[in-house]
Design goal:
Length: about 375
């Protein structure tokens, strides 16, 4: 056959032979005479479509009435060719095979699309289930944060800017009262989201154990005990150490003497007094983490507070936020400068100004970490 058709073929004349060749020979197209020895061409079409749904079928006949031609096309014949016009057969085969290829490709795409829709639905359902679980975990974490009334009973004027990066947070704040003393901590655990939240639960429990049960209130001693307890909690059964840890700032305020004690693990305290803001440095060492020695000493700092003094504690999320005109980090020095510039405002107003500045600075940038800032006025 001309027209660049290269092919092999099998000729059958019986129903049984036809059914066998549909699978044994696996043809790409069926050419059928109208008059067959044991069955008709339309019966052959019905068998072909039943066995191999999309196989092209061309009817070749000596003559055909208009009514029969219509009947054939309705039945699904792809083309019919008169024996007197066989010159048209190669182009018909080309066209039908091309259309069939497109149809097969379309069917494949539609099948993949359906599979993707099913997969997407499963992912969507799984995502919803996970998100629902994390949202419930947030309720548990929120309930974990102590009643701010404890802080208010010692310090009337304060604010907390707390913005988790994800649904749950690796940053948390913590208060406890022991007689005339108030213990305040801000904590930044390794990671954020679910891993950070698990670490926060561990840290929260350790703080409760040390202060509320062991009645330890000196900040440096609290940090030393926390480091030992966290290392024990994270020690793996195979002897390998965990690299997880936390940075925190903790201070104890004596209500009677107005004496503040402070210790920090990679976190500092900022003291505003007499119109000036100064830094009280914590130790350059976190709690837990990759350190080999579980025993650490932390420096204990003392500050005599006066009426109108303010103290600020914060994790690194605020200062590390990208934004501004150049898309750079805010940096701690700029945050401290901003705190100093707004510290003369009423403390609620200062909170609003800092929050507004953060919104403006971040703009459309993605939040990079959990954000926690605590300000207290005495």
């Amino acid at each position: 056959m001309k027209n660049d058709l290269v092919f092999s073929m099998e000729v059958v004349s019986t129903r049984t032979g036809f059914e066998e060749k549909l699978f044994g020979f696996d043809p790409d197209i069926v050419l059928s005479d109208h008059s067959l020895p044991q069955f008709s061409s339309l019966e052959a079409l019905d068998i072909a479509r039943h066995k191999k749904k999309n196989i092209p079928f061309i009817l070749i006949t000596g003559s055909v009435s208009e009514e029969f031609a219509v009947e054939c096309m309705k039945a699904g014949v792809d083309d019919y060719i008169l024996k007197s016009s066989l010159i048209r057969l190669p182009s018909s085969i080309h066209n039908i095979l091309s259309k069939n290829k497109v149809k097969r490709e379309k069917d494949i795409v539609e099948s993949l699309h359906r599979e993707l829709l099913v997969a997407y639905k499963k992912i969507e359902e799984s995502s919803k289930s996970i998100t629902d679980s994390i949202n419930y975990a947030r309720l548990i974490q929120d309930a974990m944060f102590v009643d701010k009334g404890i802080l208010r009973s010692y310090i009337q004027d304060y604010f907390i800017i707390f913005r988790p990066k994800d649904i749950v947070s690796g940053d948390f704040y913590w208060f406890a009262s022991m007689g005339q003393k108030l213990v305040v901590a801000i904590v930044d655990c390794t990671g954020h989201g679910v891993p950070g939240a698990f670490m926060s639960m561990i840290g929260y429990g350790i703080l409760n154990e040390i202060v509320n049960l062991q009645h330890i209130t000196q900040p440096s001693e609290i940090l030393r005990e926390m480091n030992e307890s966290l290392n024990k909690a994270l020690q793996k059964s195979n002897g390998q150490r965990s690299y997880d840890g936390m940075d925190l700032a903790i201070c104890t305020i004596d209500k009677e003497s107005s004496l503040l004690e402070f210790a920090g693990a990679n976190r500092h305290l900022y003291h505003y007094s007499g119109g000036q803001i100064s830094q009280v440095k914590g130790d350059k060492s976190g709690i837990g983490g990759a350190h080999l020695n579980s025993y650490k000493d932390f420096a204990n700092h003392r500050i005599q507070l006066h009426k109108g003094d303010r103290v600020y504690l914060f994790t690194d999320g605020f200062a590390d936020q990208f934004g501004g005109a150049k898309g750079k980090r805010m940096m701690t020095k700029n945050l401290v400068k901003l705190i100093g510039q707004t510290a003369s405002c009423e403390i609620t107003s200062q909170c609003h100004k800092l929050s507004h500045y953060l919104d403006k600075w971040q703009g459309k940038s993605v939040q990079t970490d959990d954000i926690l800032l605590l300000g207290m006025e005495f």
